[in-house]
Amino acid sequence: ARDYAALIEAQASGRVQYAIYSALAYATASERCGCVEPLVAPVDADGAVGIRSVLVTRDGRLPDLAAMASHRIAIAPAENFGGALLPLAALPAEGVNITRDSPFLARAASATAAETMLVGSEADAMFGWEPADTGGRSSRSEGTVARLEAAGVPEASLRVLWTSGLLRFGPHAVRNDLDPEAKRRLTVFLTNLRSQTPDIYDLLEAAHSGGFVPAASKDYAMATAIVRHASDGRD
Q1: How far apart are CA 105 and CA 151, in angstroms?
Q2: Model pTM greater than 0.85?
Q3: 71 φ, ψ to 5°?
Q4: What is the rounded distance in angstroms from the CA atom of residue 234 to the CA atom of residue 99?
Q5: What span, in angstroms and rounded, lies between the C-alpha atoms of 206 and 16?
Q6: Which of 165, 175, 169 is CA-nearest to residue 24?
Q7: Residue 196, exposed/middle/buried by CB under 10 A (0-12, 13-18, 19+)?
Q8: Domain 4-43+169-232, CATH homologous superfamily name and number
Q9: What is the pLDDT of residues 72-131, one digit of tens each?
Q10: What element of type H or E holds 116?
C-alpha cells in the first residue's frame, strides 16, 4: 500500500488479511472497522516494548500535577508522542484539566528545545518520554531523563512526577475473521523468526532488534486514546 490510509482501507474492506502497522495506524484501523487484531509486536534489545510519557521536574520546581496551572510546563510539538500526544490524551482521562492551548504550557520547537528550557530554568517541568517493558519497568538508559543527565543535570535533582500508560510499538495485525489456525501458525512463525532466520527478521523489522512477542488488542489502549482524542478535536 502507498500509505497507512490505503493499507487501513484495504484491510477494512477485506482485500488484505495481514498488515504491518504503526501503533496509531493500528488503532485507527481498529476504530475504523473493529475487524483487526494484533498478532505480534517488536521488542527492543533491552526488553522495551514501547514508550510512555513522563512529566519531569528539576530541583522540585513543580511539586505535583495539581500545581501545573501555576507553573510553566514545556511541551514538545504536536506530533511528538511522549512530549505531546500521550500527555494530552492521557491526562484528561485522569481528571487533569489540560489542552494544547492551556496557558501554562510553553510550546517548544522540538523535544530537544523542551529539554533546553528545563535545563536553562525557562520551564519548571517538561513532558518527555522513556522506554518501558511489559511490566512497566524502565531502565531510563534512554529517553528524556537520560538525555538531561547527559546534558549535565544531576540525577538527584530530577524527579518524574507522572507517567502515562504504555504506547506499544506497532503490531503485525490480521483481520479477526482469519482462520484461527492461520493466526496460530503466523504467530509461531513470527515469534521464532529472529532466532531461526535473523536475516529475514532484519528485513521485516529494522528499528527494534529484540524479536517479536505476542500482542493483544488491550496493548494498544494508549494508541486508541490518542486516536480518539484527535478525532474528538479536544486538542
Answers
A1: 23
A2: yes
A3: -130, 175
A4: 7
A5: 23
A6: 169
A7: exposed
A8: Periplasmic binding protein-like II (3.40.190.10)
A9: 999 999 999 999 999 999 999 999 999 999 999 999 999 999 999 999 999 999 999 999
A10: helix 111-119
Cell of 32: 475504523
- Please state the length of the chain: 235
Domains 4-43+169-232 and 50-167 agree in fold: yes
- The domain ranges of the chain are 4-43+169-232, 50-167
CA 150/CA 165 separation, integer angstroms: 25
Residue 109 is inside which H or E element, if any?
none
Summarised one tens digit per residue, pLDDT across range 138-192 is 867 799 999 999 999 999 999 999 999 999 999 999 999 999 999 999 999 999 9
Q: Which helix (H) or strand (E) holds 160?
A: strand 158-163
Q: Strand 50-58 and strand 36-42: pairing?
A: unpaired
Q: Which three cell numbers stand for residue 168?
A: 506499544
**Rg of the chain taking only CA atoms, in angstroms:** 19
CA atoms within 13 A on the CB side of 69: 5
Fold entry, domain 50-167: D-Maltodextrin-Binding Protein; domain 2 (3.40.190)
